[in-house]
Amino acid sequence: MEVSREKKKIEAIARMKKWGIYGETIKQFEKDNLVSESRPPFGACFWLDAEQKKRVEQFEREHDALVYHVIHGFTNIGELENYLYVSDYEEEWEMDREAIENNQQLVYVLNHSMPDCSEFGSIGIELTPAAGLRRTW
Questions:
Q1: How confident is the model at residue 1 (pLDDT cuts 50, 70, 90)?
Q2: pLDDT computed for residue 16 by the predictor
Q3: Helices 93-101/5-19 angle, 10° precision
Q4: In the predicted model, what is the mean pLDDT of the chain?
Q5: Could you read off the pLDDT of 116-128 as tens digits, one per residue?
Q6: Which residues lie closer than 8 Å to 80 by C-beta, 6 or more apart?
Q7: H or E element: which one contains 115?
Q8: What value does the mean pLDDT take over residues 25-44?
Q9: Residue 88 CB: number of other CB atoms within 10 A?
Q10: What pLDDT, in 10s, does the model give residues 82-118?
Q11: Is 62 left (phi over 0), alpha (psi -120 to 50) or beta?
């Protein structure tokens, strides 16, 4: 199955709005394809650096996905980059939208501290006071 990048982008923008991500961040993703990350301690949004962009691009190629936001965090299992993405499986999108209503999302978790523990999974997410996102579980 091959869903166009443009169609995935439309879905990604809708999800960003549903999450409540800062409006200017959404506009810059929409106009310039700039992916941002929410960073601790306040969850404010920053642009990805060159190394992060390479990792995101590799993930997108390998999984036919479009990453629209990254939640960066530090946990007892390591330094994590949680990729929020739109998959190539359009039939799953409605379920993904419903998950947002429950403050959760299926993501890819890249574990920098223990790369072998990187995996797909559901995480809890909340909007931060800085209009970014934070992983809650």
A1: low
A2: 98
A3: 10
A4: 96
A5: 999 999 999 999 9
A6: 71, 72, 73, 74, 109, 110, 111, 112, 135
A7: none
A8: 96
A9: 15
A10: 999 999 999 999 999 999 999 999 999 999 999 999 9
A11: alpha
b/e map 103-122, b = 16+ CB within 10 Å: ebbebbbbbeeeeeeeeeee
- Would you say residue 45 has pLDDT above 90? yes
Question: Strand pairing of 119-127 and 78-86?
Answer: unpaired
Locate 14 and state its tokens.
């809708």
Helices (H), 1-137: 5-19, 23-32, 50-63, 93-101
Tell me the backbone φ, ψ of residue 40, rounded to 5 degrees.
-70, 160
Indicate the burial class of 17 (C-beta count within 10 angstroms; 0-12, 13-18, 19 or more).
exposed
Q: Would you state the structure tokens that stand for residue 65, as one six-digit string?
A: 């996905």
* Alpha-carbon span 131 to 20, nearest angstrom: 7
pTM over 0.90: yes
**Structure-token pair, residue 114:** 């223990």
